[in-house]
User: What shape does this take?
Amino acid sequence: MKIGVLPDQDVASPLPEGFRIHAKEILRSVGILLLVALAIGCGAKPEDAVLGKWVTVSLSQQDNPLGFLTGIEMEFLKGGTVAVVVTLGTGAGTPTRVSATGSYRFVEDNRMRVEIPGGNPPITLYSVAIAGDDLTLTDPAGNAQRLRRSR
Assistant: This one.
């Protein structure tokens, strides 16, 4: 058995000569396995993953029964502040943007309490699902808002 194997040297192996594995290949395989394990096992905490600006991808009929709501932007900041901008329009003229600031906090890994003074309702407990750049907030009635991270 060889001791102090360098990356370009063969590692002693009980396998036949044609199956001999190089130390460099072993190191590369181990490195890839470690990266995959880290990616699977160490996903970002929801408190960190939600940070940033998000814009609507789709609006439910419940959120927009009259068709005036054209978009929602939500920005989650460190420290529990959320800024919300709602865009209203009828298709004619300049849309109206209404903004509000509130607070949020995670009460469980996948449940977030959002409080927007003057909102309707002012406090909502959302189920949160984050997959890459997609965020889905589902209220207790089952209405889902799908948002995408804004770059």
Remarks:
- The chain is about 15% helix and 40% strand.
- Residues 1-43 form one domain.
